[in-house]
Design a protein that fits this description.
By secondary structure, the protein is of the alpha/beta class. It is built from 10 helices and 11 strands. The structure holds guanine.
């Protein structure tokens, strides 16, 4: 039996409609909508597109968003100043610094400026550290990894005691997702470009999260029968049959994986829609917390 599809689009829609109604309540009570401040430095087209998508999603959900778009040649001080401006703004409840930043900017120093109660991207070095420490709670968990966890939970299968393999160890996806799976009591292996016998490691996994950024890298015959397979990848491949001339594929070879897995996400329509939804959810949470202060 082919794998069941975990439909990120419908899960995201469900959560976004809950956010919309909660945002309406918040706005009525507080007299202003939950607000997200976005800092974008430079003109990387992919980053500009992500920021546009975040802005539109805020509008749809009844959140306010404000962007500080700085030129690529901005100084460290200018980037940090933009973050501090949002820290000081009572109508901004959450802050997102779009990554990657230009090479000359010290990313850690910039992220360190984000006020912890406003770190809705869960990306402040202290929050990532807390995620990895027993008995510590980050103020927020990062959007994509939180979306991955929700999609795994959507299967109704327990995570505790399962063997999980995370392929990729980036700061914004691979590492935090591995920490979150460990916090949910999975036994976690982090695999990366130097892993020997990656197919062998994947074969032992009940849960596979692929976040390597290589088109259709993980093959169906690497997988254990019945595994939960979450594809974080978003890669474009030339496709003369498509109007655009390309199509999006994940890090998993979908058709071969679907024949073996128990549950699988699609690209597009899997993790992608969850990322923005989790950002909206964290921004709403930050706004509500600010009312109780
Ligand atoms: N760039 C790509 N994904 C992300 C993300 O989740 N957060 C931030 N801040 N930048 C990104």
């Amino acid at each position: 039996m082919p794998a069941r599809i975990i439909d990120g689009r419908s899960v995201a829609q469900r959560i976004q409609s809950e956010i919309k109604s909660a945002a309406r309540d918040f706005t009525a009570q507080a007299g202003a909508a939950p607000g997200l401040g976005v800092v974008l430095v430079g003109d990387d087209p992919a980053s500009a597109m992500y920021v546009r998508m975040k802005r539109r999603a805020c509008e749809r959900a009844g959140l306010r968003s404000e962007a500080r778009i700085l030129p690529a040649a901005s100084s460290q001080a200018e980037v940090e100043c933009a973050v501090r401006g949002f820290n000081a703004d009572a109508n901004i409840h959450g802050i997102l610094v779009q990554l990657p930043l230009p090479d000359h900017i010290d990313e850690e120093a910039a992220l360190n400026e984000i006020s912890l109660p406003k770190d809705v991207d869960g990306i402040h070095p202290l929050n990532i550290g807390r995620l990895g420490m027993r008995g510590r709670e980050p103020t927020f968990t990062p959007a994509t990894p939180t979306g991955v966890m929700l999609l795994i939970e959507e299967t109704g299968e327990t995570i505790e005691g399962k063997r999980a393999v995370v392929i990729g160890r980036s700061n914004i996806v691979g590492l935090p997702v591995a920490l979150m799976l460990a916090n949910a009591n999975a036994t976690v292996t982090i695999c990366h470009s130097r892993t020997r016998d990656l197919p062998g490691a994947v074969k032992g996994a009940d849960i596979v999260v692929a976040a390597v950024g290589r088109a259709e890298y993980v093959k169906g015959d690497w997988l254990k029968a019945g595994a939960i397979v979450i594809d974080v990848g978003s890669n474009s491949l030339p496709d003369p049959d498509s109007e655009k001339g390309y199509r999006y594929v994940g890090d998993i070879e979908f058709e071969s994986a679907r024949a073996v897995a128990g549950y699988i996400t699609k690209v597009p329509g899997g993790v992608g829609p969850m990322t923005i939804t989790m950002l909206l959810s964290n921004t709403l949470k930050a706004a509500r917390r600010s009312l109780n202060e």
